[in-house]
Amino acid sequence: MMDRTLLAVAVATPLLVGAGFVMPSWAVFLVSAAMAKALVVLGLLVLLRTGLIPFGQALFFALGAYAAGMALEALHATDAFLALAIGTLLSVVVAAALGALLARYRDIFFAMLSMAFSMILYGLLVKTASLGGTDGFNLPSPTYLGYAPHRGAAETALYVLSAVLLGLAMALVHLYLASPRGRLAEAIRDNEIRVEYLGASVRGAICVKFVIAGALAGVGGILSALSVGHIDPGMAYWTSSGEFVFVTLLAGAGSVFAPFVGSLVFETVRSFAVQYSPQTWQMTLGTVLLLVIVFLPGGLWSLAARLRRARA
Amino acid sequence: MLLASVIAVDGLIYASWLFIVALGLTLVFGVMNILNVAHGSFYAIGAYTAATLVGVYFAADRPAAPAFLLLFLAAVAAGIPLGALIERGLLRFMYGRDPVILVLVTYSVFLVFEDLILLVWGTDPYFASQPSTALGQTDLGVLSFSTYDLSLILVAAVTGGVLWYALARTRTGRILRAVIHDREMSAAMGVNVGRMFTITFIVGAVLGAFGGALTAPIISVAPGIGVEIIVLAFAVVVIGGLGSIPGALVGALLVGLSRAAAVHLLPQVELFTIYGVMTLVLLARPYGLFARAQARRI
């Protein structure tokens, strides 16, 4: 008997995919960007449940994208699945190494140290001329196991891939968080020392969650880079991480759907704010974040939960 | 030998600048337990205010000497209203919440100010180099340095000294130290903790604006200077131990000298020496160099 969330994911994913064929082009692009972001935020959700907020997820976002881009160039390939495989693998390896280190820290120091690593990558990328320095480099239009879509269909193809990956990620993360290992997250957030006394390894658990978050961020980075067609070091800058954390708190940690909802709201607000009032879009974002923190500490998803309770 | 001297002086200059910029941040954290991302906004607004004042002052043909007073005035004029507004108007209602939430509150304030700066001062860069050029160059042996840069060392020393004296010898300073040690107990002893917080935040804002005002003559004051400074200030503060002023000093020195060494010896790593130093320090001392011992609650 599948639980409600899995059922919802199983229903929502085909709907999302289908929507890609009927939505106008600008909407497809917007939702694609939101989905890539949602993947990163999904990883952050796992860490948020553990009581940790890293300020350096941009590291994996950029790492995945750069690894994929470099691999594609080196192999003279354009396959999206190859890019995903290589980029995600590198993200996982780096996340495992860094996670083992970061698992010793908490709170502000966890956040700052992860930010330091992402800024180190930024510094490296900016100074490496062969990777284009601050300009970055372009990515070729992706192919999918031999299928090379022409201009109009390329966006839709990437959209479908992103939607399927997002649905898969949501289902897997939900299953993980419902498992005993995943439940440790909230236990660690509440009282680490008791978890240790109960026989579980806190550092091991945190490391695993960090790897999950890193992998998801890497996938998000690759999809985002393929969607825009360009990679630059700005993907690793701390303001990029700040955006992810922003969306995580906007969305709340209530459900695996929350990251997608939060990302969608964020991307929509930002697109319209930039279009209609380019001088004040940051102010708008800042004000929205402030309002959410003050009035909706559980994030946007807690609204849904509140409505459900009110109806019951 | 010559290279070592150049690195030492350059490092000292950069360290002084970092110290002034990071001082307000570590003070606010030490007293209020808030890592203030809006510190970058104080810095930027201090720089813009200083640039504007200096521009207005030198529009007519006036002597250069009083211009330095303008920098200090700019910092005070920018810092006091901003600090009071943010603390009394917003942060006051957020105390007691999760520290990371407070960081995000200050982050949203920072975002708002980024656009406010654009609205008030526009996107074009401002130049206020007159105070810097007026001082000319100083020769230390065969090396020549900008006198303004060297004076930063003096200013940093004086600022640090004044702050130390205020904290160690004045009554308000001692009360502030009590609040740092134990907020609840101080309140129980009759200290108006709310007022202490306001004073501290305003002082932190003035110090941040002062850092910006001092920097205005040597950079082009353009949008985005706040963003760059935040990570630098954070790194210095984290290295030294959050809330520790001697820590900020040592952290600034470490970073300043490392960066100067990198610039002269290995320029490719210059951009991230600061983060490399932070990583190394945190590896050895997870809470920073001079962090206070904290009790573990079970």
Q: How many strand segments of chain B?
A: 2
- Summarize the biggest pleated sheet of chain A: 2 strands, antiparallel
Oligomeric nature of the chains? heterodimer
End-to-end gap of chain B = 54 Å
Helix content of chain A: over 70%
Helical region count of chain B? 12
Order of helices and strands of chain A: HHHHHEHHHHEHHHH
The interface involving the most residues is between: A-B, 42 and 43 residues
Label the CATH architecture of chain B.
Answer: Orthogonal Bundle
Overall radius of gyration of chain A: 19 Å
Kindly state the number of beta strands of chain A.
Answer: 2
Report the mean per-residue pLDDT of chain B as an integer: 86
Overall number of domains of chain A: 1
Across the major sheet of chain A, the strand order is: 1-2
How are the strands ordered across the major sheet of chain B?
Answer: 1-2
Number of domains of chain B: 1
Plain-language structure description:
The complex is a heterodimer of chains A (312) and B (298). Chain A has 13 helices and two strands. Chain A has 312 residues and is mainly α. The longest helix of chain A is centred in the middle third of the chain and has 28 residues. The radius of gyration of chain A is 19 Å and the shape is globular. Chain B is mainly alpha-helical and 298 residues long. Chain B has a single domain, classed as Orthogonal Bundle (ABC transporter involved in vitamin B12 uptake, BtuC), CATH 1.10.3470. Helices cover 72% and strands 3% of the residues of chain B. In chain B, helix 1 packs across helix 10, helix 2 packs across helix 10 and helix 10 packs parallel to helix 12. Chain B starts with a helix and ends in a 14-residue tail after the last helix. The interface between A and B is large, with 42 and 43 residues.
